[in-house]
Design brief:
Length: 445
């Protein structure tokens, strides 16, 4: 008889675990409190239709994402193009590209970063020395990187104020979701090694046209339904029940109980803590640690512009209101044009700013990133505010992120915030779903 799995949470982590376990012959039930899958990838409000919360950007180093899209048959929507590069909008309005020379990795990234046109020659030289040292590990990287901020480390290694604010800070905001003065130096070093100081294709960039629904959510939902998994949308879990040794079941908000052989909690960490009994939080350091994780906010503004259909662009903004901008063409049901999405991360004060302020700054920043769009008519706009968008990767956080196997043998955790070693983004969520499924299969043997 098929072994049963209950997965709580229909974000990308839960979806991935469901697809992988379903593919391994388990009878999967996925419970999601909202009426559609997608989690934080989708924003919904009572007053408006749900919309993509995040502009889709896939990097060549996003192996777990690419492998999942391959399984779903949508990988061909992701086209890496050499013409799409990181661009930087510097204070004063200058737009400069990060070059990606035709050299094997990591020489391509070292040369690209070291010839960054946004810095004076003296600083470029120091960038190269810093990268060489980090890559070669000679002398070895300091052992205390996990307890210091990236800003500290970069300053100690001769990175000037300009290099930090024009180059490293925009990259950290985009790849880690927070400021250099907040994120840990170890996380920053890992990101640098993973994305830049490795194979050339790791720095490849793609902006799929169709958005996150056609790329991931719709095909995943179809695949799960067709292959016999049960999707229960609009169902909220309000308790996970334990005896002394294992999970004995879950209780839905309606009061009904559900039981299975295996349980996966693919929830944001705060939400998970609220479903656990107090005794689990106090008796097990594995769970107690979760109460010490913190998140950082994000605000995204999407602008639908009717007229132009330019090539996709990704611009990282230095010293501006928003931290990165993605523009891509759209064409659906008679409407065609450009969607411009601007994202600001880590600024909690921003969550309370009035819509018109957020929109005005978005239009100013978009105008400087896309001079050809200045004056273009904005046909529609949408603002997404998320107080807990990303796990805050502060010094000390890495040691609090849990592995998938909990102290209870039939309970596993997934989520972008678990211990994947990656920043808490879509790639981390998908990798956590993969690892969670592997851990269940291994425990079942
Ligand atoms: C504004 C914004 C911008 C972002 N930008 C980017 C970006 O550019 N690139 C990137 O890679 N990532 C980005 N992210 C992060 C990305 O959205 C997350 O990394 C990803 O969604 C995490 O997936 P997850 O499955 O771990 O968690 P989630 O997506 O949070 O999914 C958890 C699911 O659990 C459900 N749930 C919660 N409680 C219950 C319950 N009691 N019962 C049943 N279901 C429950 C929730 O409804 C949700 O669907 C952004 C996020 C936001 C908000």
């Amino acid at each position: 008889m098929k072994r049963t799995v209950l997965i709580i949470g229909g974000g990308p982590a839960g979806i991935t675990a469901a697809l992988r376990l379903n593919g391994r012959g388990y009878a999967v039930t996925l419970l999601e409190q909202r009426f559609e899958l997608g989690g934080r990838l989708i924003s919904s409000s009572e007053s408006a239709e749900s919309t993509d919360a995040i502009p889709p950007v896939v990097l060549g180093c996003h192996k777990a994402t690419l492998s999942l899209l391959e399984t779903l048959g949508t990988a061909r929507q992701v086209r890496f193009s050499n013409r799409l590069r990181f661009e930087f909008l510097l204070p004063g309005g200058r737009l400069v590209p990060l070059r990606r020379p035709w050299l094997p990795g990591p020489l391509h990234a070292m040369l690209g970063l070291a010839t960054f046109p946004g810095l004076p020659l003296r600083d470029r030289w120091r960038v190269l020395a810093f990268l060489e040292r980090t890559w070669e590990g000679d002398p070895e990287l300091p052992l205390d990187l996990g307890s210091r901020t990236a800003n500290d480390w970069l300053t100690e290694f001769g990175q000037s104020k300009e290099a930090r604010s024009h180059l490293w800070s925009p990259l950290a905001r985009f790849l880690l979701g927070d400021d250099l003065t907040v994120v840990s130096a170890a996380t920053f070093a890992r990101m640098l090694s993973h994305c830049f100081l490795s194979a050339r294709h790791h720095t490849g960039l793609a902006i799929p046209i169709g958005g996150i629904r056609s790329l991931l959510l719709t095909p995943a939902s179809e695949r799960l339904t067709q292959s016999g998994a049960t999707l229960r949308l609009g169902i909220s879990v309000n308790q996970i029940r334990f005896d002394a040794h294992r999970v004995t079941g879950i209780q839905l908000q309606s009061g009904s109980p559900l039981v299975a052989d295996w349980y996966v909690a693919a929830l944001p960490h705060r939400r998970l803590c609220s479903l656990l009994p107090e005794s689990a939080l106090t008796n097990y350091s594995y769970f107690e640690q979760l109460t010490r994780l913190t998140d950082s906010p994000a605000v995204t503004v999407h602008l639908w512009m009717g007229s132009t259909r330019p090539a996709p662009r990704l611009v990282l903004l230095a010293g501006r209101t928003y931290h990165w901008m993605v523009s891509r063409a759209f064409g659906e049901s008679g409407r065609q044009g450009t969607i411009v999405s601007l994202v600001a991360t880590g600024l909690s004060g921003w969550l309370d700013r009035p819509d018109q302020d957020l929109l005005k700054s978005a239009l100013d920043d978009a105008g400087d990133c896309l001079p050809t769009a200045v004056g273009a008519k904005v046909a529609d706009s949408r603002i997404v505010r998320e107080p807990q968008a990303f796990l805050s990767l502060r010094p000390g956080t890495a040691s609090l992120r849990p592995l998938p196997q909990s102290p209870f043998p039939n309970l596993f955790l997934a989520g972008d915030w678990t211990d994947t070693g990656l920043p808490a983004t879509l790639e981390s969520a998908i990798l956590s779903g993969d690892r969670c499924a592997e851990a269940i299969v291994a425990a079942d043997q």
